Amino acid sequence: MLFLDKAIELNDTELEIYNYITANLDKVVYMRIRDLADEVHVSTTTILRFCRKFKCNGYSEFRVKLQLYAEEQKMAHIDMSDETTYIDFLKRTAQPEYKKQLQEAVTILRDSELVLFVGIGASGVIAEYGALYFSSLFTLALHIEDPLNHPFYHLSSKLSDKICMIAISVEGENEDIIRYIHQLKTQKCQIISITNSAKSTIARLSDANISYYINKEMYQDANITSQLPALYTIESIAREIRTQIDQEKAGN
Length: 252
Prior knowledge:
Layout: H1 12-23, H2 25-28, H3 33-40, H4 44-53, H5 59-75, H6 84-92, H7 96-110, E1 114-119, H8 122-137, E2 140-144, H9 157-160, E3 163-169, H10 175-185, E4 190-195, H11 201-205, E5 208-211, E6 218-219, E7 222-223, H12 228-251
Parallel strand pairs: 1-2, 1-3, 3-4, 4-5
Antiparallel strand pairs: 6-7
Helix pairs in contact: 7-12, 8-12
């Protein structure tokens, strides 16, 4: 909340003060305590109690911290003009190394009867899309939204070696997915991962990994690294498998 790194409990009056400040940040940093009190129709004592909840000894300290916070918000921006990250990635998709990684994944998936997609956060959205895309083109695919609540301890041996999980992860270090991979590997399931680096834990645990190596981007505390490479890779795998199946049918 504002310059604090955690949420705090506010009563109704304090919430009104908070809402006014967040909506008028540029103006409040120059206000005197009396001016702010008049604007939100409370006493200066109420404003002081509000400031103490934000770990400030008084209004002056609160206003200084608020001003620093406002300046940080203005400085935080996303550079949308640099397209080289996407261009470089698309160039690499034509290189032998990327095609080799893609074909390794295709070979595994051609022998799979059920594909499980897993990802957390933004990667989870891509995983959900991947399940839909795969199901549309060549085989049943499911999105596992919450790996910890979908354990696979009792798979039939006749089924387990026909299951392939595709893990989507930018960092490749998500502990929940890593635990899930260990669980599925004991059941002899195949693991494919799509990560930013081949050196990540998830990549190294996988039977096949496709790594795309693009610049990591952060906005405040959020990882906003582009998911375009993962999306492109998923579609490329599915299209390649569909093409191979169609060619085999035509040959027969």
